[in-house]
Amino acid sequence: MVAERIAFREGEIGLDKNYDHGTEEWSKAIPLDSAERRLLRILDAICKSLEAREVVIEKNERGELAARMGEDAIAFQLRYRMKQVKIAITPDDWRWKFKGRDAFRQVLEPTDELVFEIKTWVPAGFRRNWREGTKHRLEGQAGDIVATMLAAFPVLAARREEREEEARQYKIRQERRREQEEMERLDRNRFRRLAELAEASRKAALVRDLVASLRSADLDPEAMIEDMTVEQWLEWAETAVACHDPMSNPLSVLKSVAAVRGWTYSD
């Protein structure tokens, strides 16, 4: 990673101009200065110490440096602390005519103090920032940084396994809830079909009683009604009752109920 950063800077030096997002200006890239070399030297020492303990140094999906052990990764950053300063806007700056002669713009400039930051969440009790001062240089804190990251990996792994187990249990509960809801919906639909068949049987019984009453009535069986005799109408009514009464074929009642599915009724 350090070699890659050096190669990138050398590539910038080969370009005519490079855009500086901090100053919002185009400038010529210059070779690494002593401050940048110091940063890279410390970063290289930290990375090599981690790699010596079977930790892989890589870039994550956000382009951050990350130390990976197994399935767990810790993103980190080594940088110089920035401070905000005011710079007067000059007439050759396009903002000058809008903000006036005495206007200023604020920019960030690096200090000579290095800051190492762990950007990944780590449990309480783990240090996440190392900032050097006049008495404590970061070279002397590199061992503590490496030790902290190595100690954090088992805790991160345990926390990940807890989350995975929680997710697995949640999935099981959701699946059981879904199965229970499907079974309840199926039971409701089956009972609905059974109630429909019971209602059909009740109506058939009423019609059967009516037909029986008609047969016992003093009717001329040969009398014509429309294109059929009274006897033919009674026979038709008895056949219709048998066709519409589910109990004419009791086994079909159970088969009809068994054929019901959870999606049989859309309402």
Q: What's this, in brief?
A:
The chain is α+β, with helices and mostly antiparallel strands and 267 residues long. It folds into 2 domains: 2-167, no CATH class; 183-258.
Tell me about this structure.
This protein is of the alpha+beta class and 267 residues long. It folds into two domains: 2-167, no CATH class; 183-258. The protein has helices at residues 2-13, 34-51, 96-99, 142-216, 230-244, 250-258, and strands at 18-20, 25-27, 56-59, 65-69, 72-88, 104-118, 129-131, 224-225, 228-229. The strands form three sheets. A five-stranded antiparallel sheet has the order 3-4-5-6-7. It has a two-stranded antiparallel ribbon with strand order 1-2. It is rod-shaped, with a radius of gyration of 42 Å. The chain starts with a helix and ends in a 9-residue tail after the last helix. The mean pLDDT is 87.
